[in-house]
Write the structure tokens for this entry.
Amino acid sequence: ADACLFFIDRLSGGEAVNAGAGMDISIGELARLIGKISGYGGRLVFDTTKPDGMPQKLLDVSAMQKLGWAPRVSLEEGLRKTCEWYAQGTAGSRGEKA
């Protein structure tokens, strides 16, 4: 939301700006990080017989940097906050019968 509010007054319309950390992370690394943060104790299994798409996702953040915006929350902190938010929102709803 911070990036959206920052760019809304700085773009005239039609321009595309990627808002991100500008760091490269593989799908496997991201999955392991989410598992660590969420407390998942299971094993991650990747089905290598299926198409895997792009093995890594890296946004071009040069336009964002030229405009002067930088993220204030790291990927790990953002994932942690999201997991906490999700856990609070689902607390008490798991296993309940209607």
